[in-house]
Amino acid sequence: MKTKNIDYMDIAKAIGIILVVLGHTNFPFSNIIYLFHMPLFFFISGYFFKKSYFMKPISTFVKRIRSLYFPYIKYCIVFLILHNVFFYMNIYSNKINSATIVNKFTISQIIKEFLHILWFSSSEQLLGTFWFLYVLFGVEILFCSIGFCVNKVTDKYTDKYTETIIGSVTLALFILAYVLISHKISLPKNLNLILVSMFIFYIGYVYKKYEEKIKFNLMIFGICFILIIICSLYSRIDMVSGYYSNFLLFIPGALLGIYLVIYISKLISIKFTDTKIKNQLIYVGKNTLTIMALHFLSFKIVNLVVVNIYNMPYYNIAQFPGINLTGAWWLIYCPVGVMVPLLYLFIVNNKEALQIYNCRKA
């Protein structure tokens, strides 16, 4: 299966972010999603990492400050400002008997949290998925630094030799992370998670070079689908908490899921050329950050509906990530978690377009 462009990667990101949202609901097969949904994003990030970045580490650092650190700062500060407002609206609550209790902030706590934000380590509940931004930032900077050093040392050798050394270094660091995790040793600033994620990132980086040689067909898709179900029976993964019930199945499970998503993405890109389905998925894929930032907050809309339907106390709106109910409420949580952030984008973008139009008219 061949594609002439990389639209399929935007589609893959769209599928990935939908799976992220779905995994935060009471979806019965979330365990399968957790095997690969976050590795998928590190893989895709590696795919778009350019070899030229190795030669310009300072420029790469500045670019990642703009694309990762600044958006992180923006959303975290807004949510910090709204923290106590959310508390009064029952979006946060200290009345819930669970591990997700959130208290109102004092002035000193707000200052402390602000400093944490600047240091890339905010803990705002509704931005729980933002761990991905600071881990990806660490992955890209460390990967770029390794590539820069290796290129300096192997300047007289071939690109393949250089690529092999970079791969060996990332694999060695991945194994180091495995040893640390197995001995329950945590390095500061999520370095364990950075080392684990960087190897997936490297695989995505290499995949771009060899993607035309990799076969994508229905038979392999079916085999991968069966294997990932088997994997899910023996492996439980939560990357952010550093939980791997079977670390040896982490890479196989991740790659199986990534293959499935890329196959579906390529299929959509080829079969649905210039259709609404393809274009809408590409749009979702280009706006994954907004969905990542706002889907937990969007869940509160469903929580409000549930609270009113079942006559529950209003502080139950604060249940996180959603109210734990039997039934298929994930069928509501997931679309709301994806569509509300996109609706917000639509309103903001149209407001900006209207302002530009009025300025030109004036």
Task: Describe the protein's topology.
Elements: H1 7-23, H2 30-34, H3 37-47, H4 57-81, H5 83-88, H6 107-118, H7 131-153, H8 159-182, H9 191-210, H10 218-234, E1 237-238, E2 243-244, H11 250-271, H12 276-286, H13 288-309, H14 330-361
Antiparallel strand pairs: 1-2
Helix pairs in contact: 1-3, 1-11, 1-12, 1-13, 1-14, 3-9, 3-11, 4-6, 4-7, 7-8, 7-9, 8-9, 10-11, 13-14
How much of the sequence lies in strands comes to under 5%
Rg, nearest Å: 22 Å
- Overall SS class: mainly alpha
Distance between the termini: 52 Å
Number of helical regions = 14
Mean pLDDT: 91
| SSE pattern | HHHHHHHHHHEEHHHH
Please report the total strand number as a whole number: 2
Total domain units: 1
TL;DR of this structure?
The protein is mostly helical.
Structure, described:
The protein has one domain. Strands 1-2 form a two-stranded antiparallel ribbon. It starts with 6 loop residues before the first helix and ends with a helix. The protein has 362 residues and is mostly helical. A hairpin with a 4-residue loop joins strand 1 and strand 2. 68% of the residues lie in helices and 1% in strands.
